[in-house]
Amino acid sequence: MSSPTSTAPVPVIPPDVLAFAEEQGVAAYIPQLIDWVRELLPAATRLILLLEDDPEIPDDWHILFEVDAPVDVSGYVAAHQRWNEGLSRLCPAPLTCTFRLHINPVG
User: Fold this and answer.
1) In sequence order, what DSSP letters do the residues of 24-67 get, joined into one string?
2) Three-state DSSP class for residue 102
3) Which helix (H) or strand (E) holds 73?
4) Whole-prediction pTM
5) Which single residue of 8, 61, 78, 101 could bond 44 by disulfide (Cβ 3.0 to 4.6 Å)?
6) Burial of 100 (0-12, 13-18, 19+ CB in 10 A)
7) Angle at the Cα of 84 (from 105 to 53), degrees rounded to 5?
8) What is the CATH number of domain 17-105?
9) How many CB atoms lie within 10 A of CB 6?
10) Domain coordinates in residue numbering, the chain
């Protein structure tokens, strides 16, 4: 049995995200993580990748997977928990801090 297909289009990786990913040595993990997010949130309607800086820590940048998905509070928490599990499985521990997930709950 195959997993449900996400309704969100496969995102185009913006040039600045790709350049940062290559600089950080994580570019090879992005396609797997895109697939993981699409599997994790199959009802997502939007998935984009962008760079995000930490406003409290100078020069601390991350690749953000921003997703619009119809989730309630328990679904949001479960999705983040599964994201962390998948991230740990797909990406070596020292590099996982490069990636972040943000879910915008939509109705």
Assistant:
1) HT-GGGHHHHHHHHHHH-TT-SEEEEEEEE-TTSTT-EEEEEEE
2) strand
3) helix 73-90
4) 0.90
5) 8
6) middle
7) 70
8) 3.30.70.1350
9) 21
10) 17-105
Token pair 């990406």 is found at 91
Question: 103 with 41: CB under 8 angstroms?
Answer: yes
In this structure, what token pair is assigned to residue 72?
């309630």
Question: Hey, what are 8's tokens?
Answer: 């969100």
Q: What is the pLDDT of residue 85?
A: 96
Q: Two tokens at 39? A: 């599997």
Q: What is the pLDDT along the chain (107 residues), one digit of tens a residue?
A: 445 556 778 899 999 999 999 999 999 999 999 999 999 999 999 999 999 999 999 999 999 999 999 999 999 999 999 999 999 999 999 999 999 999 999 97
What does the alpha-carbon distance between residue 82 and residue 3 come to, in Å, rounded to a whole number?
A: 15
